Amino acid sequence: VIELNLDIQNFHGALSFAIHSSEVKGFHPFLLNLNPHSEADGFIRLFWQQAFGCQFLDVETEEEFCTGEEKLESLPGAFFEMQMTSQSYSIYNAVYAVAHALHAMLFVKEYTLLQPFLRNILFNNSAGDTVFFNEKRELEGGFDIINWVTFPNKSFLRVKVGKLDPQAPLGSDFSIDEKIITWHQSFNQVGPSCSYSRQRKEGEPFCCYDCTPCPEGNISNQTDMDNCFQCQEDQYPNQERNHCISKKENFLSYESPLGISLALLALAFSATTALVFGIFIKHQNTPIVKANNRNLTYTLLISLLLCFLCSLLFIGRPQLLTCNLRQTAFGIIFSVAVSSVLAKTLTVVLAFMATKPGSKMRKWVGTRFSTSIVLGCASIQASICIVWLCTDPPFPDLDMHSLPEEVIVECNEGSANMFYSVLGYMGLLALVSFVVAFFARKLPDTFNEAKFITFSMLVFCSVWLSFVPSYLSTKGKYIVAVEIFSILASSAGILGCIFSPKCYIIVFKPELNSKEQLKKRNK
């Protein structure tokens, strides 16, 4: 048993289908002579009230009352639609589906249940559509998008402006032609044509709006858009916020003025260090070179030379190799330099203490002690760097968000704790060297290198203490420039404070570079 329940919205379709599919003699006059008072079916009364906009006496309302004498022929043609509509189309398919199912059941002569035959029906209707039930036992069907063009006499014209076909290929299942749409005369968009987004006015009809600029970081590339959208991570909006522009890469390159300046400065300090090293090699047998442990002096000069050169690893586009090398190489080489300074300071103190009668410190004075200090301190730093590289090493990274119009190409340090451990260990060595040199600054003039070491470590600590806040407050290529400047400044401070007085005597005052002069100064 199939029960068809027709509501008011389907009534028009039912009439249309009845007249359209089978021309029943006398049906139209019968329809026009319907009277709601003489019909027992309450549905006719509901239809009558909706069609004529009135209410019967038994209903309390402020609308006018229905008399029952209203004429159906006075209604617009829409109430007696003769063409296939959405409602009549559904009824048409339902009736024909039942007919095909009955035909199949009669064909096999199995007078049992109709449902299995109904579930397997498949036919093409007169509109050219394939009718069948899907796995959810629903009729598969598309939709025509109809533009209802109404006229003052309550007549209308239906214009097909698009369709929705679920059986069509993906991308072509929905289509609509906006150019042929006719809008109702009472529908007007109250507002200007927006080249960016629009925002509905509060308290106004839905079609009233104001033009609003897109929020920062968003764009609108079409007119009268309700919402703006964001650019991709590697793009940013232009000034008009209607187009996305690719972000430029931000890193310290050799082509930029800042990169060139720092590279030339590093090479200049390297050349100066090499010149000082050459001077000391040439005058290695003079008293002023021999007085302060030549091997430590050479080790310090070579490590300073490498410190200046390793700053070049920070310039250029970050690569995996340079990211792994630049912090670890700088940390180990600088630790060798600072531990050499510490060894020179302790050598000064031990040498003075060894001159006292009966002192047992003489056995500690020598190259073995200073070499042990340098190797031991450098080994600790090397161990920290190896652990860093094995657990969470640095790697090239892209920062899309720190700068609005640029992509920062940087070396992600991996473990920030290991990075600050490397810096902290160098700071500890410098602090110990400074304290020891400060207390040894008043030793006899023969050992006055402690005064220069005090100044060099003071410069070193000042530079790196100012580096930390600068490092944390800058972004992009400037953070790299700050670290390069700190490396060059601290290395130059050690080079200048310790070696410039000696070079001055060796080059410009050679008469002071003799044992007699050293003995006179010691007295």
UniProtKB/TrEMBL annotation:
Keywords recorded for this protein, A-Z: Cell membrane, G-protein coupled receptor, Glycoprotein, Membrane, Receptor, Signal, Transducer, Transmembrane, Transmembrane helix
GO cellular component entries: plasma membrane
Gene Ontology molecular function terms on file: G protein-coupled receptor activity
Residue ranges crossing the lipid bilayer per the database entry: 258-281, 296-316, 328-353, 365-389, 422-440, 452-472, 478-499
Topology of the protein relative to the lipid bilayer: Multi-pass membrane protein
InterPro entries attached to this UniProt entry: ANF_lig-bd_rcpt, GPCR_3, GPCR_3_9-Cys_dom, GPCR_3_9-Cys_sf, GPCR_3_C, GPCR_3_Ca_sens_rcpt-rel, GPCR_3_CS, GPCR_3_vmron_rcpt_2
Keyword Transmembrane helix carried by entry: yes
Pfam families tied to this protein: 7tm_3, ANF_receptor, NCD3G
Subcellular localization, as worded in the UniProt entry: Cell membrane
CDD domains tied to this protein: 7tmC_V2R_pheromone
Sequence ranges assigned to domain G-protein coupled receptors family 3 profile in this UniProt record: 258-522
Coiled coil location: none
Family: Belongs to the G-protein coupled receptor 3 family.
The protein, known as: G-protein coupled receptors family 3 profile domain-containing protein
Organism of provenance: Podarcis muralis (Wall lizard)
